[in-house]
DNA sequence: GCGGAAGTAAACTCGACTGTACCGTATACT
DNA sequence: AGTATACGGTACAGTCGAGTTTACTTCCGC
């Protein structure tokens, strides 16, 4: 017997994550998960009372991982505008990561049956990201809270399109490698994002960004 | 016996559409579709050899309906810039329509298993829309083909966010009513879209849109 | 080194699903 | 009217999956 207790539980979660992300909820059987985890179905049900429970635990795990990998804008650069740029770049990088993109597909697929799960995914991705971005804008620019909220959402919309739909519909390939803690990928087009930041930075005058520094 | 031949086939497609959109592909049984269509499973298989075939036919039907409802920018106004605004407004209105939003969920859910279906959905929604918009910009403004392509995608990104994710994740309620042929809904915020058009209309100078008329 | 907790392995229940077969019947065409 | 065809209803074959049960084995604290 290789694993016991918490170690086994984590191992099951790892195997279930791979299985669910690969085949979806309905098409993944508990037998398949047990085989993948090299354990018995009995142990699955010892740790997770139902298939739904296990699924929720898997999604919660990826969700937490996304949150941990995302950080806040200020952690990406001491210069406020560049922090915004890199924060957005990080965001699209994480969206491309197959674990995240496939989790989004799963959440969308089960949005009717598990509304809380889907709403939670939306929140940690777009709600928290837009909120953190808006808070950073309020702190470092002359935007009011309302302007910052609008600008943050407009910027995110600009940055993720058309990448997000392309990822969801499988038109654009997913990135299999797991991003490092705070490393930005080389394939993120920061110059494009700098231009987009310029677009939304000041909707009133459409001048250059009015960052304080 | 109420229906025969083509009439029955259409009736089956209607029932299957409701069933699939409501419960998803996996959770909808052929028995349920037969009951909903008030016909027999025998007739289902007489018209559609497999469940997949029926599903593809249903999605193709909604896809065609979307294309027919979307039209081209020039049909929305004689004034070029206002045509862009109303075209974008129409786009988000159709996205909110439950038949379309739920079809998107289905396509995303089956993106791995039926890549051609998902890619087809992406194309008719975002590919064709961006293409038509870019073509209209080229015809009516001073944008080059490349600038128009970029501007069209940026505008679509601005317009659909955060509505599209909210619809997909069930955070925002779907609209049950079927949009008229070319009527714009009253709940589409055209003033917001006018502002967004201003944002992307001229990335070089960020001046007001340089439409010819 | 012993006893209970935790794990493995396999068969098993029960229900649901796809797709097929059969038969009686209604419809369309001539 | 008569016949081929299409439809409805039901039963069935074959498969598969969630969750349970039983019998056996290994780990770990004491």
- The share of residues in helices of chain A is 55-70%
SSE-based structural type of chain A: mainly alpha
What can be said about the biggest beta sheet of chain A?
A: none
Basic shape of chain A: elongated
Average of the residue pLDDT scores of chain A: 90
Strand content of chain A: under 5%
**Helical region count of chain A?**
10
Cα-to-Cα separation, first versus last residue of chain A = 59 Å
Q: Which helices and strands, and how do they pair?
A:
The structure is a homodimer.
Chain A: H1 5-23, H2 30-36, H3 41-47, H4 51-70, H5 80-96, H6 98-109, H7 115-140, H8 145-160, H9 163-168, H10 190-200
Helix pairs in contact in A: 1-2, 1-4, 4-6, 4-7, 5-7, 5-8, 5-10, 7-8, 8-10
The structure holds a DNA duplex (30 and 30 nucleotides).
Polypeptide structure, described:
- The structure is a homodimer of 213-residue chains.
- Chain A is 66% helix and 0% strand.
- With 213 residues, the first copy, chain A, is mainly alpha-helical.
- The relative contact order of chain A is 0.12.
- The A-B interface holds A 22-24, 26-27, 105, 107-109, 111-113, 115, 118-119, 121-122, 125-126, 130, 153-154, 156-162, 164-166, 168-171, 195-196, 198-200, 203, 206-207 and B 22-24, 26-27, 105, 107-109, 111-113, 115, 118-119, 121-122, 125-126, 130, 153-154, 156-162, 164-166, 168-171, 195-196, 198-200, 203, 206-207.
- Chain B binds a DNA duplex (30 and 30 nucleotides) through residues 1, 3-5, 8, 29-31, 38-43, 45-46, 49-51.
């Amino acid at each position: 017997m290789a694993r016991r207790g918490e170690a086994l539980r984590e191992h099951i979660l790892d195997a279930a994550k791979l299985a669910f992300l690969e085949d979806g909820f309905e098409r993944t059987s508990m037998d398949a998960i047990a085989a993948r985890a090299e354990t018995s179905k009995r142990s699955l049900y010892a740790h997770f009372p139902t298939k739904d429970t296990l699924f929720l635990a898997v999604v919660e795990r990826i969700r937490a991982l996304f949150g941990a990998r995302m950080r806040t804008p200020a952690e990406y650069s001491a210069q406020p505008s560049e922090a915004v740029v890199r924060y957005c770049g990080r965001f699209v990088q994480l969206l491309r990561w197959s674990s995240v993109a496939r989790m989004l597909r799963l959440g969308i697929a089960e949005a009717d049956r598990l509304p809380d799960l889907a709403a939670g995914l939306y929140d940690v991705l777009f709600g928290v990201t837009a909120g953190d971005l808006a808070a950073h804008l309020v702190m470092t620019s002359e935007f009011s809270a309302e302007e910052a909220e609008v600008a943050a959402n407009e910027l995110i919309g600009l940055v993720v399109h058309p990448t997000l739909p392309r990822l969801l519909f499988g038109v654009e390939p997913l990135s299999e490698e797991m991003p490092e803690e705070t490393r930005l990928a080389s394939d993120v087009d920061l110059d494009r994002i700098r231009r987009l930041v310029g677009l939304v930075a000041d909707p009133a005058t459409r001048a250059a960004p009015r960052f304080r520094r």
